[in-house]
Structures are given as structure tokens and as C-alpha cells.
Specification:
- Strands 3-2-4-5-7-6 form a six-stranded parallel beta sheet, sandwiched between helices. Strands 15-14-16-17-19-18 form a six-stranded parallel beta sheet, with helices on both faces.
- It has helices at residues 8-19, 34-42, 54-68, 80-84, 86-95, 143-161, 201-209, 224-235, 258-262, 267-272, 288-297, 325-332, 342-362, 369-377, 392-397, 419-429, 440-445, 483-490, 499-504, 515-525, 544-554, and strands at residues 4-5, 24-27, 47-50, 72-76, 99-105, 132-134, 165-170, 178-179, 213-217, 240-243, 277-281, 301-305, 319-321, 385-388, 407-408, 434-439, 460-465, 508-512, 533-538.
- The protein folds into three domains: 4-172, Thiamin diphosphate (ThDP)-binding fold, Pyr/PP domains (Rossmann fold, 3-Layer(aba) Sandwich), CATH 3.40.50.970; 201-352, Rossmann fold, CATH 3.40.50; 364-554, Thiamin diphosphate (ThDP)-binding fold, Pyr/PP domains (Rossmann fold, 3-Layer(aba) Sandwich), CATH 3.40.50.970.
- The protein is built from 21 helices and 19 strands.
- 38% of the residues lie in helices and 15% in strands.
- With 556 residues, it is α/β, with parallel strands linked by helices.
Length: 556
């Protein structure tokens, strides 16, 4: 016989999650949230996942939400457990990934009386969430009606904003009282708002009179509708579309390798290639060079298109367009002229020149991180989704073609924490195989991302292990530090490898230390097997930073 939590607030919560189609629950162990764990695991409609480490669990939930494109709920016990959610909450906030954060708590009058595992949990995420709500204890007057309204509002806000929303749930003891039957709760009348958008007439006039139109696309999910719309804009060479690997756009007339084209720009180049109308779509842009370029360019107009975020990234924002890009371009395309503009040809000539030099360098590149990324980009089967960790990994990825594969990276805050957990969460919920390409520090930092029983056997991880945070030998600045300081405290030189970790977590393990072995094992690495696999590419004794610097010098 099924046994459910007797807590009325938890029964209402479960009912409303079902009403809104939220079925995936990531549960971290604890006593205070035991009523949630008991209840969700007993209701067959929910898919429950046990992840011990709360920091990892929150990123796993975020990866699931990214894969499913709908909210995922995460729940933990009281105290510091809730604080461990915070890195993933911030990442989800800046990427607009819907997480419903359910933190169990001690009764509200227990705060600051030195009761165990009791901290100030209410509003703990308030700077990086779209809503913070606290339920009433069941014993409080009108708790059932008030909690019903609070939970409904919180769920709808999570769906509307497509971002994290927090519900703090004070629970009185006893925590383990159960019932065998559930009450009938009312059906929900959903009130999620949908904004209408109409294009101001002046925008159409501004488009038609602009001669140098650039559209820059940052981090975003693949959208076939947006791909088709932007393809219409470049068909007759009307605009320049710059995008990155994690923009998930694939048309051959889009400029996909920004740093390859602009890395060595002079002051004269800044002026020659600057737009007069800049249109930006999506979230964070990886390329620091393009940010420098556009901040110096001072375009006469800058429109940003997003239903939630309106950042003035390039210090020139003139128009905040609060709409989905697909909605905006569907309307814009009805009115604008798509005549050819010489601006496109200017960029196209630049692309041909830099692409030719890129190919020349590939023919002589020695075994290194650069060599590794080139080989891997050509070897990944078409059905894989790719997750790339931060720092040097995503920067290398921008330089190569990965075909039409979906590429993801946690660029909301651009930290190395949570890359593995996010990728594993995505893999757990996605029917197609997932590949994580990660640097060594990012991998070792988040090894608890492998600490669960749900990772599919067709999951693959490739670690390029250069024995340090090699990014600090690539970017300008850290090289000015004392060499010993750089080695120990910034780049953090180490001699660890992942072989025993792979065995511990049930992964097959392959080590690569040279180009011949890499070429030999890549094809078999992606073939089906009974276990997930880790390939570790050891480049620790290679001067990868020098190879990358030589590459950019060769593009001049």
C-alpha cells in the first residue's frame, strides 16, 4: 500500500506540480526534507533522482531542465544544504533555465535561536531568483488556502520567466507521519501571461536606412525558426551575422569563428569593420575581443532582443526589445528591404583570408590542446549533443567546426563549477548521447557530478589534461606574476589524472598522450558499450599556450 506524507503543504505542492506538468524531482538526502522525498517517491507520476551533493544536484537539475526545456524541481534539507544550491541558482538565473528550488526548513520561529541546521533561508537567493516565497506551517491559520496560492504563483513565475524560483518550506515535527489516502484538491486555472509585441515603425525605418547592419548572437538553445529567419537576412548579403559555437546556428553564410577573424584587429580595423546598427540576441558572448571591438565601435544604434534581459553590454544600447527573437523577426521580415549591402562583402573577404590561414596552420600544428580540439571536432558522431566546460575549453571550441551539433556551456557566470554535473543532468534526460569536453581543473572540481546511478552508458567525457589552469598562460595579465606564484596559486600546477576516478564511478577509461594514439582511439571511443567512457588526453608536457599564440600570430 502506498504511503504519503501527512503534511498538507507537501500534498498541495505535489498536486500543483502535476497540474503544471513538472515531473522531474532531484532529491538530496536529509531529514527535514524527508516529507518531500517520501511523498514524491510514492506518487508514481514523479521521476525522482537521488543526488547526494547539493551543489552537484542543483547543476544536475539545471542540465535536466535544459534538456527537457521545462522546469525541474530540486529539494534539499535545511541549513547549509540550501546554500550549496546557490552556484547553480545563479547560473540558471543568468541563462534563464527554469529551476524550482524547494528548500525544507525548520519552523520559522526557530531561526537564530541556535537550533540545529537552522539558518536564514527565507530569501536566501533573492538577488539571483525571479521569485522567493515562504509557505506557512500547516498549523497556521488558513495555511492550506494561502499555501495553495503561493505555490501556484511560484510555479507560474518559474514557467513565465524561465528561470529559478525559490519556495522555502518550514516543516514542524513530526516529519514522518504518513497517510494512505490523499484529499481531492481543485483543478488549477492557469494564468501564465503571454506578452504581445508590435514593432515600432521607427525601427523599420532605421533598418532600411542603415548600411552596416551586424547581428551578434550569444549563448542560446537551437531554434529552427530563428535559424530560418536569420537565413533570410543573409540570403542576399543584407546583414553580417556573427555567432559562436554555443549560439547553435549553422548557416554557411553566418560568421561562426569571431576570434579567428578579429583577434589581430588594429585601430584602423576597428573603424573599418564597425557596424552602424548592432542587433544582439541571446545571452553571454564568449569572445572578449568582440566585446572590446563593439565597445570601441560605438554603433549609432544597438537593439537587444530578449523577453527578460536587456543588458547594455557594449555601452551603446538604444532599443530594448522585450520579445522572443522569433516573434520579433517574424514581424520585422514583413516590412524591411533585404537589398545587398557592401558591408557583408567586406566581412566575407576577411573570412576567406583568415580561413585560408587557419587551414595552413592546421597542417603543421603539433600535438597540443589546439591539435586535440581540431581532431575531436572532426570525429564526433552527428547524434551527439556537446557540453563544453569553461575557461580554455570553450575558447578552443570557438575556433573549430563541429557541424550541426548542439553545443552547450555554462556561460551565465562562466565558472568552472558544475560543468560535469550539468552535462550529466542533460545526459540523464536526453535520448541521444551526450559528450562532455572538459579541462582538468573543471573536471576534478566537479567530480561529484559522476556520483549518481542514472548516467546512460552512451555518455562520453573527454578530459584534456594540461596539468594546470592553462587559461592563465593564454590570457594577458597573469604572465606578469612571479613564475612560482603563477604556477602554484593561479595556474595551480598538478600531476593528477582521472584513471582511478573513472574506475570508481564505473566508467571505462582510455588515456592518450600523443597524436598517433589519439587518431587511433577516437573512432572506437564513440562506439556503443555497456559503460560510459572517459578519455583523458594528456598534454601536460606540451606547450599548448605557445601553439595557440603561434596560431593567432599566423592569422595576421
Amino acid at each position: 500500500m502506498k504511503k504519503y506524507s501527512s503534511k498538507r503543504s507537501i500534498q498541495i505542492l505535489a498536486h500543483l506540480l502535476q497540474q503544471y506538468g513538472i515531473s522531474d524531482i532531484v532529491i538530496s538526502p536529509g531529514s527535514r526534507n524527508a516529507p518531500l522525498a517520501i511523498h514524491f517517491s510514492e506518487v508514481e507520476w514523479f521521476n525522482c533522482f537521488s543526488i547526494v551533493d547539493e551543489r552537484s544536484a542543483a547543476f544536475v537539475g539545471m542540465g535536466m531542465a535544459r534538456s527537457e526545456k521545462k522546469p525541474v524541481a530540486i529539494t534539499c534539507t535545511s541549513g547549509s544544504a540550501s546554500a550549496n544550491y546557490y552556484p547553480a541558482v545563479i547560473e540558471a538565473f543568468y541563462q534563464n533555465i527554469p529551476l524550482l528550488v524547494l528548500t525544507a526548513d525548520r519552523p520559522s520561529d526557530y531561526v537564530d535561536i541556535f537550533d540545529g541546521q537552522t539558518i536564514r533561508q527565507n530569501n536566501i537567493y533573492h538577488q539571483h531568483s525571479y521569485g522567493d516565497f515562504q509557505l506557512l506551517e500547516d498549523s497556521k491559520e488558513d495555511a492550506e488556502d494561502i499555501n495553495f496560492d503561493i505555490i501556484k504563483k511560484a510555479i507560474e513565475l518559474c514557467i513565465e520567466k524561465q528561470g529559478p524560483v525559490h519556495i522555502n518550506i518550514p516543516l514542524e515535527e513530526p516529519l514522518y507521519d504518513l497517510v494512505s489516502e490523499l484529499p481531492a484538491f481543485p483543478e488549477v486555472e492557469k494564468t501564465i501571461r503571454q506578452k504581445e509585441y508590435e514593432i515600432p515603425s521607427n525601427l523599420i525605418a532605421d533598418w532600411n536606412t542603415s548600411q552596416r547592419i551586424m547581428l551578434l548572437v550569444g549563448t542560446r538553445d537551437y531554434s529552427p525558426e530563428l535559424e530560418t529567419q536569420l537565413s533570410q537576412l543573409v540570403k542576399n548579403h543584407s546583414v553580417v551575422v556573427l555567432c559562436e559555437a554555443n549560439s547553435n546556428l549553422y548557416h554557411e553564410k553566418f560568421f561562426k569563428h569571431i576570434d579567428r577573424y578579429i583577434y589581430n584587429f588594429t585601430e584602423e580595423d576597428w573603424k573599418a569593420y564597425a557596424p552602424d546598427l548592432l542587433i544582439t540576441v541571446g545571452q553571454n558572448v564568449v569572445s572578449k575581443k568582440v566585446k572590446q571591438f563593439l565597445r570601441k565601435a560605438h554603433p549609432k544604434q544597438h537593439w537587444h532582443i530578449d523577453p527578460v534581459w536587456q543588458p547594455d553590454t557594449y555601452f551603446s544600447l538604444t532599443q530594448k526589445i522585450e520579445a522572443k527573437p522569433e516573434v520579433f523577426f517574424s514581424k520585422l521580415l514583413k516590412f524591411i528591404n533585404l537589398e545587398p549591402r557592401p558591408y557583408y562583402n567586406l566581412w566575407d573577404v576577411l573570412r576567406d583570408k583568415k580561413d585560408a590561414k587557419h587551414e595552413q596552420f592546421l597542417n603543421k600544428a603539433e600535438f597540443s590542446d589546439f591539435y586535440f580540439f581540431n581532431k575531436v571536432s572532426q570525429s564526433i558522431p552527428d547524434n551527439y549533443s556537446i557540453h563544453v566546460s569553461n575557461s580554455s575549453a570553450i575558447r578552443y571550441a570557438q575556433l573549430f567546426d563541429f557541424g550541426n551539433k548542439k553545443i552547450y556551456c555554462n556561460r551565465g557566470t562562466s565558472g568552472i563549477d558544475g560543468s560535469t554535473s550539468t552535462a550529466m543532468g542533460y545526459a540523464i534526460k536526453n535520448p541521444d548521447p551526450t559528450l562532455l569536453i572538459t579541462g582538468d581543473l573543471s573536471f576534478f572540481y566537479d567530480i561529484n557530478g559522476l556520483w549518481n546511478q542514472y548516467i546512460p552508458p552512451f555518455t562520453r567525457i573527454i578530459i584534456f589534461n594540461n596539468g594546470e589552469g592553462n587559461i592563465f598562460k593564454i590570457i594577458p595579465g597573469p604572465g606578469n606574476a612571479n613564475p612560482n606564484t603563477l604556477k602554484e596559486f593561479i595556474a595551480t600546477r598538478h600531476h593528477r589524472n582521472a584513471e582511478l576516478l573513472a574506475k570508481h564511478f564505473g566508467f571505462l577509461y582510455i588515456k592518450v598522450s600523443d597524436d598517433i594514439t589519439l587518431d587511433r582511439v577516437l573512432e572506437n571511443f564513440f562506439k556503443p558499450d555497456a559503460q560510459p567512457k572517459i578519455m583523458e588526453v594528456d598534454t601536460a608536457d606540451k606547450n599548448s599556450e605557445d601553439v595557440l599564440k603561434e596560431y593567432f600570430a599566423s592569422l595576421q
